[in-house]
Amino acid sequence: MVYIWLNFGQPTGPFARPFFRRSVSSSGGTTETNVKSTVATASAATASYKGVKNSRWRRYVLKPFVFVQFFLGFGLLAIAFQQFRRKNTHPSQSPELIAKDWEIFYYRIIPFRAISRAWGWLTNRHLPVWARKPILGIYARMFNCNLDEALDGNLENYSCLAEFFRRKLKNGVRPIDAASSVVAPSDGTVLNFGRVTAGMMEQVKGVSYSLGEFLGPAYWRNGPEVRNVGQTDIEYENSLLVNKENDLFHCVIYLAPGDYHCFHSPVDWTINFRRHFPGALLSVNPAVAKWVAGLFSLNERAVYVGRWQHGFFSMTPVGATNVGSIRVYADQQLRTNCTKWALPLPYYDQYMEPSEAGAKEIPLSKGEIFGEFNLGSTIVLIFEAPKEFEFNIRPGEKIRMGQPLQRLSP
């Protein structure tokens, strides 16, 4: 018997054996035997090649992934154990319950931005008509959504979950208080409010964050070339005041997943500057806000700055986990929840002064719709007002868009 080898070069590794072997013989039975041998040899070579591919996949992909998952899981388990011990040792609102730097480091390792983009993609998938009532109905019951207030109460008319998030309300269900100069910009829960003290604001009771870190350098009035180096927190706070006889106040409102997700203007004002911080997308749930100091200064946010009747006014929608995007209707250039490669800088400024080419100020009336979240998140108001200004709300109170935030004198 004579064997003819089809040999292309000098194969190595899994290809050391030839894939094809042809026999020349006058015996039919012997030919059948050789064909079976050829098939068996080719199958063995293919299996060997697949084995090499699998071993490489395990070495370069699976093992690092498992290692990272183990590292992350171990860190989160350590955080949970430490927090459990602290809660059993220290009273509520104790400073010891605030996350340490290493805990925040582990927490920020979680790919919240990628998770949020994936969630945004999922919630924008088209739902067949037959599936809309069951899926959207479960969500509405889970988060206590009031469908009687929706402009369109028929769940079959919402093509995807994201469209239901952004549902509009019927006219008149959120009356705008005419007597109060400041009204609630959205539905939600009041996390905290009060007077800005020494350049610091309370995130929740017992947890504060810096006004300067949250807003960034205050050079929106004088242009980007003016930066006060070495400015203290108190000096920063005073630099925002148009009238030095006034004080600065702040208010933080958390929007839960079941709340109405559009936000409106709380006052009559004019916007002339926007600063976008790409930031992180950590959860802004009240429990996390009590744990991570400076949470709102870490997260993605769009700071809008302008003037109202008493001077300085700013309104900041803050992003969070699973918030696919922040949309501001009058600012189409704003793009949120992008990759770090797309927005590598700490923040991006947009001047809206009439002198800027192609820019224009944004005038807003009290109660006018301003923008929307693609899930729940947070609104932070920081504004200048007379010293006698008083809030008409309580921490933890559920509020509705348009209700008064200011206590009026009798």
TrEMBL record:
Mitochondrial matrix side: 1-64
Keyword Transmembrane: yes
Pfam families assigned to the protein according to its UniProt record, in alphabetical order: PS_Dcarbxylase
Leading EC class: lyase
Obligatory cofactor(s): pyruvate
Active site location: 187, 264, 377
Catalytic activity entry: a 1,2-diacyl-sn-glycero-3-phospho-L-serine + H(+) = a 1,2-diacyl-sn-glycero-3-phosphoethanolamine + CO2
Superkingdom, natural source: Eukaryota
InterPro entries linked to this entry: PS_Dcarbxylase, PSD-B, PSD_type1_euk
Residue ranges, Mitochondrial intermembrane side: 84-410
EC number: 4.1.1.65
Family: Belongs to the phosphatidylserine decarboxylase family. PSD-B subfamily. Eukaryotic type I sub-subfamily.
Role played: Catalyzes the formation of phosphatidylethanolamine (PtdEtn) from phosphatidylserine (PtdSer). Plays a central role in phospholipid metabolism and in the interorganelle trafficking of phosphatidylserine. May be involved in lipid droplet biogenesis at the endoplasmic reticulum membrane.
Protein name: Phosphatidylserine decarboxylase proenzyme, mitochondrial
Species annotation: Scapholeberis mucronata
